[in-house]
Design brief:
There is one protein chain. Strands 1-2-3-4 form a four-stranded antiparallel beta sheet. Strands 5-8 form a two-stranded antiparallel sheet. 44% of the residues lie in helices and 11% in strands. The longest helix has 20 residues, at 133-152. It starts with a strand and ends in a 6-residue tail after the last helix. By secondary structure, it is an alpha+beta fold. It is elongated and about 85 Å long. β3 and β4 (35-42) form a beta hairpin. α2 (72-83) packs antiparallel against α3 (89-106), α3 crosses α5 and α8 (195-206) packs across α10 (262-270).
Length: 397
């Protein structure tokens, strides 16, 4: 076993019995006056010397060298607890999911041991696992925030994510799915005349998000069904549906309803309890997963209609409006897209222009005429019974 003292500040270097090199440095004294020994290990003398050099440089620069040895999973949890109050509940759920991915990979590794090539290897693994570019971007963005906070608190010298090379984006990125005009017409014509059928028609005719639709209370729907106010949305909190704020400031809006689906809005309003679709416990909103299950079953019953996601109804609304010649600014004002550069402009879209847009939609997808072809009796179940005035299908007006 080789052992030798080095000059002051360079520690004692020795070759261990296991074949590794070890450098031991006396790093001051503890509160009881005992020497504090710091050891560094490596496969070669050069590797050990580099570790010692980085340690001394970090100490000289004021970096919290002890903090740098904090396990990533501990720091990530600490960061999230301090950050979560600044984000919406739905975003918190998204962050929790992404954090599980990050901690599953980096786990108990020390913060100061994570290098740019580790970030690159992590991103390549996600890519090889078949993850999308947007998924990779979310993971990298959250990792950047976590490590940036560590850098800001002098736990690490620099944020490794900042220096990691970007992966080339995959070619032929798949576009957002939307229903064809033929599929939309078939849904208007053949969806069941019950709660799920009315909800799907309303989503196709207004571009509402699922979370906005399921948070609607009767007071949010105009008496004649011509207008819906978006003032709240479903937010998921640890798997439970709760009422919270819409996605962004631009999501607070009044949505004009095309004439051909106004009867759906009226029937949903007048058959509602606290919400147009309640959960198992009266007075609570339904879980979006329950809605998606019913949505899928309804679409599976229609031949020649693909079973796309509920959010595809929103994409469809935008694409069909564009196909009908409605300008993009008007569409964005109606669906509540957040666009910082255009927000003030959207606030000034005039009501006549919006009315013209939904009139075009109603003419393009006429569907059943609720005045002459009343819907079938609603499905049995909670919050479906309609007031006497509607039991005779008095849905005109």
């Amino acid at each position: 076993m080789s052992k030798g003292r080095r000059s002051n500040g360079e520690g004692t270097l020795r070759l261990r019995a296991d074949g590794r090199w070890e450098c031991t440095l006396m790093d001051g004294y503890d509160n009881d006056g005992r020497r504090v020994l710091k050891s560094f290990y490596g496969k070669s003398q050069k590797q050990v010397k580099e570790k010692l050099k980085r340690y001394l440089a970090d100490k000289e620069a004021g970096i919290d060298t002890a903090g740098g040895e904090t396990p990533f999973s501990d720091w990530a949890d600490f960061w999230f607890e301090g950050h979560k109050d600044n984000i919406a509940p739905t975003t918190q759920e998204n962050y929790r999911y992404t954090l599980r991915i990050l901690t599953g990979y980096f786990g108990r590794r020390h913060l100061n041991s994570i290098k740019p090539y580790d970030i690159e290897a992590f991103m390549r693994k996600l890519r090889n696992d078949g993850r999308s570019d947007s998924y990779l971007a979310k993971c990298k963005a959250l990792m950047f925030q976590i490590m940036n906070k560590a850098e800001g608190n002098d736990l690490i010298r620099k944020n490794p994510v900042r220096f990691a090379e970007k992966l080339r984006r995959l070619p032929h990125k798949k576009g957002k799915d939307s229903f064809t005009a033929e599929e939309v017409q078939k849904m208007f014509d053949e969806l069941p005349e019950n709660r799920i059928g009315w909800c799907i028609r309303l989503m196709l005719g207004t571009g509402m998000r699922t979370q906005e639709l399921l948070a609607l209370e009767p007071r949010h729907i105009a008496e004649d069904g011509s207008l819906i106010q978006i003032r709240q949305a479903i937010n998921m909190d640890k798997g439970k549906a709760k009422i919270g704020t819409p996605k962004s400031e631009d999501s607070y809006r009044d949505v004009p309803v095309p004439e051909n689906v106004r009867y759906c809005a009226r029937l949903l309003r007048d058959g509602a309890g606290t919400y147009i679709w309640e959960g198992k416990v009266p007075g609570t909103p339904v879980n979006p997963s329950t809605f998606r299950h019913n949505y899928t079953k309804a679409l599976q019953s229609l031949e020649t209609v693909r079973v796309l996601s509920p959010h595809s109804c929103r994409h469809t609304y935008v694409s069909q409006m564009q196909a009908l010649g409605v300008d993009l600014d008007t569409i964005k004002s109606m669906v509540g897209h957040a666009d910082i550069d255009m927000t003030q402009h959207y606030l000034h879209v005039q009501q006549p222009i919006r009315q013209d847009a939904i009139d075009r939609f109603a003419k393009a997808f006429g569907g059943k005429n609720p005045e002459t072809e009343p819907p079938e009796p609603p499905e049995s179940g909670k919050n479906i019974a309609l007031p006497i005035a509607f039991s005779a299908y008095n849905v005109g007006g």
